[in-house]
Protein 1
Amino acid sequence: MILINEKSPRWGRIVACKSGRPTLSDDADRALFAESAGTCLLCNTTLFPKDPKRKRSIPIAERAHIIAHSDDGPRADATVSQKLRDAPSNIILLCPTCHTKVDKAPEGYPTEDLLKAKKNRAQAISQIGGTSSFSSRAEARRAVERLLMRNRIAFRENGPDPETGAVASREQAEAWTDCVLREIVPNNRLVEAIVDVNAELTAPGEKETAELLRQHTNALERKHQGEPVIAPAPRFPQDTVELFAGGV
């Protein structure tokens, strides 16, 4: 049963059904998938896993509300209009497992955290979308060095004690988490993207280094989003600092 069917000046037609499952306009839905890069917002697993038997992918994406569609749903907020609850800005793409977790245990996934994660993902994908194709390893090297330098400065200014891993206060811990999600994770994603886009310039082993960086970054992002990380978490691959160094 259709509950509402209205026009939004920004997104066009937005439809929500009585069950609370969001139904967006085609344009808004495409934008949502582009913003997510086809992966779950929380665990980063692909939303289009391959089915070897049928030799094609299986779409498993689930559109989830941040603020609940109904007044008694997870993260409900009666002060938010129905129109805004069903707007694309309040919808995220999750895998079935994460969708179940965020709705069954909403206290562990507050509205502010999900909105921040959505914003950070969109910013990171926007940056990656502008990744350059370089004409030489030296150019790629300079780009990687700038990103790693930004991360070193961010760690030095906001990170925990490099020897003990301790933070001085809860406020510092919160500031560090914000820095990781806003600065370090997106910068790591850009380094990964530079390797992907400039694969023809890579030396033996550099693609593997980029994959190890991807695994480290996924775990880092999950940790600072409050997700459990199976120990031991992948460490930062030190070979990252040598990406595109020297000739081939």
Note: The helical segments are 26-36, 82-85, 96-104, 111-129, 137-158, 170-197, 206-224.
Protein 2
Amino acid sequence: MPFVHTDGIETRYDMIGTGPPLLMFSPGGFNATLEQWSSLGIYARTRPLEHLARHYTCIVFDRRECGQSGGRIETVGWNDYVAQGKALLAHLGIASAHMMGGCMGCSPVLAFAAAHPQMVRSMVLYWPVGGARYRLTSEARFAEHLAYVEQHGLAQVVALVREGRKPFGADPRGGPWASVIARDGDFAERFALQDVQQYEHLVTAMAHGLIDRDTAPGAEPEQLMALQIPALVIPGKDASHATSAARYLEECLPRAEYWDAAPADQSEEATAARLLQFLANADKLTDLPPP
């Protein structure tokens, strides 16, 4: 599977299918690997990647700090995830693409559209994260990591990750860089030698930036209301994917289509038909030049 190096960070990616480009920001929270499109929850059940690849060139990748992609110790925000996706498109020579996010992957799609609307042909927002419970759970995850660092130090974080090899979402004690620590010995060594206090400030700022509201994060409502990009919103309904977050996006995005289907009614056949119908219509309506 190919890798690309941009801005000092390695990205693992794949291109599946043929047709217009579709950049897909993976679901899975802080374990957003390209495999999640086929193995995680609702996506394993509805198999969107398999159906979309029959009509589109699906560009899937491990988000930075996830899976086999690299990372950098810095206050990571939504625009840093945007930069990774933008650099991947530039590497592939693609000027504009449809974009799809699943779960937490919806937020970088929103941020991408706000920052570079001319590059986004349409947005599919599949089970966007959000809601009060999501915020509280996410804050608790960062807090657990910081408490472990405070008590045991950064060298012990490295030892913990190397022993368990679990991503941040599976074991919060390992922190947001757990996947990179597990696969990159040089990175792990640099991580352990950081100043603890500076690191704690960095992680606190990262948490505040990524988890700043009780609805779908990624862009300000004023930015969303200014977007003239076709969007399809597919709602979830659980503690991490509150239906209210999906409704919020419907409210803010001027060209949003809201698929008013309960998760139980989002069958493989119905989901594939809705996705392909939306993208086909977006191809007809967009005034962007060909990719």
Note: The CA atoms of residues 157 and 204 lie 17 Å apart.
Protein 3
Amino acid sequence: MPETVSAARIANGATTANRAATPGISFADVVTAEFGLLYQQQLANRLDAASERHLLVWRAPQALIVGRRDSHLPDFSQTVDRLRDEGWPVLIRRSGGTACPVSRGTLQIALARIVVPKVTIETAYMELAGFISTVLKSYGLEAEIGENPNAFCPGRYDISVNGRKIAGLSQHWRRCNGHATATTAATLVVDHDREQLAHIVNLFYQSAGGQAQCSVCAIGDVRSALQQPSLSGKSLTDDVRKRIEAIWSEAQS
């Protein structure tokens, strides 16, 4: 992917893209996950001395986003074709980690910040993990932060509820506008068939020649954790987005 993508090209890929009333946060529904990933990867361009942090929340049709290491698996190219035929285009992100499925039932949450003194890889991860934990707590859900090895894209800053992973984080650092910046990104599973998510991750690795596996028992979602049938699908995703904005606004005041 190119290092610089025009704002016009990104905007053309969004069905809706707007800054919220609260400073420092934007929302986007995009026509493909590729546009969402481009939007996220260029988020640091918004930062300057007067605006040290910006939060982006986006939603896209289903896709599998993989780390660069996955692109070196022996049968990667053939697997990309196979998953595209299955309706799951494969995209490569700049940040680390392994395969992570996204869909309309997930929210992508990215926090870009200028690296100031005392900001480290760990503190940048905990900044976003703590924010998502606060959003979950507003529903009465207690988040656990730590690696869930049997889930998709396992890492030290996985977020689980009742032992099931509902969010995974990755991070990318770059220089932008004369500043070192860190963009920490998360996939939050709000309401999606867990068996399908595990299946597509396992199909990717089995087909590409990788060793990673994903257990459906290790994956959760916000809807299942809430056990409230009245909140599901788009209504629940929209509610989560509203709470994200409210909690971000409160943190800025």
Note: The helical segments are 7-12, 33-41, 76-85, 121-137, 194-208, 222-226, 233-252.
